[in-house]
Fold:
Amino acid sequence: MKPLLLITLPLLALVGCQTLEQEIVLPGVDEPPPAVLLGHVPGGLPADFYEDAAEVTGEAVLRYVALSDQITTEGGVNPQSMKSLVSPEWWVVEQEGFAYFVEEGFRTQGTSEVSRFLVQSARLTPRDTVEVGVIACVDTTGVIVFPSESPDPPDILWQWHPAYEDFEGEEADWAAIEEFLEDPRVSWGSPQAVVFWFEGPSMDSLLLSSSEPWWGVYSCL
Amino acid sequence: MSLKVMATAVLGIALALGTLTPALASECTHAERTSGQCSGVGAVVTREGVTVSGTQVTPGSSAGGYRGSWSPPPPRDPVLGSAQCEVKIAGLCRGSSPSRDVVEREEPTPPQSLSDVAQFAPGGAEFVQEPTGWSLPLLPTNVFSTSTATTESGELLGWPIEVRFTPVAYTWSFGDGTTRVDSSPGATWGTRQFSVTPTSHRYEISGDYRISLEVTYEASYRFDGGAFQSLPGHITRSGGEKVVEVLSVTPVLVDRGCHSETLVAGRC
Structure:
């Protein structure tokens, strides 16, 4: 008789049949999806949004430039009227611009011309504000900058200055012009493409928040 | 020199960039623009003519544009923020396009160590034990890992990145004090049950044993579909735990030989 190894198999209740489930947590799945604001999609913008943006910012740029010219006419000493047109941050920059006139003793005569408005961007921001960027051609050719203590430019200068290429003046006219231009601090500007940025809680309450030269595709001529 | 002659000279635009050249600036007010303090555009009239920097239109002239040796900055993209525009109508940014405050992105900073990609983790690792849940003393108990290389996608410092984890070592703890490290994940028995495999283990006595596995991974990464770059170091993750019941065996005396195929319920 040989001993035989008998194997007692329990009813294979198969305790090992269950597999160890491991929950896999992928990075970031607990984070909520980014919020989508209705106002940020084109279909969610108010009707005539861009048309209103063009109209409102065009008028605002004209108002701003005219007021700036007026302030520099007085030598930049009283810029307070500008405060209501610009954002608090830009107001600081504006004051620096006018302070240059005060410090250097400059004032201006003449007016800037603004034309060729082009809305570059108009949107509702994540801050729930309206933001509009508008490009404009700002021509300061007609604004003469000169020392505050100097007498006003001779009237003949305004005849010569805008069209001096064809100016045919008398000798006295040339003398008056030459006398005024003897001061090397006299200058005038030029047309320049500028992009103005406006922002505010609504289209009716936009404030100028910045402006900078525009070097993109846009003709100022 | 008469003023008329000077005017002629002015027509030619004396373009010497002298000390009166206004400083370049980015943002500027209209007052700064008027006074020539903005972006290199302005004209200063002197006895010698007009010193011009930037764009200058001669008063009274319909012509204009850039003149002289000074060159303007290269134009930006045709439309501001065109590269970032989500919605463009007639070539202009519209709607939600982030058209300002755009930050120029630099090249992505590669991760230097595993800690830089700590937010990524290898996919789940498991193992299989054969026979499932039970085994016999002195006979091989087989285990093998099912973990494979996994690739996780996400962002690192704002750049899309893929991090790949490749298992390179398997540390088995068999619950009876035995631990073994294999470079191979092992494999199933297939039809040869209780055969010896590179990852099999023999239990000496019956009882319940907790088998656990730790998988060691190498990590590599790539940006924007490029080649994977290895990261130094390794990362170890649990490969799971299982309890195996090693059954007891009972010797039985029989009066004659008994082939295994005729053994039924402990009797020949």
Summary: Residues 3-12 of chain B form the longest helix (10 residues). The first strand of chain B starts at residue 42 and ends at 46. Residues 145 and 185 of chain B are 5 Å apart (CA to CA). Chain B has a mean pLDDT of 66.
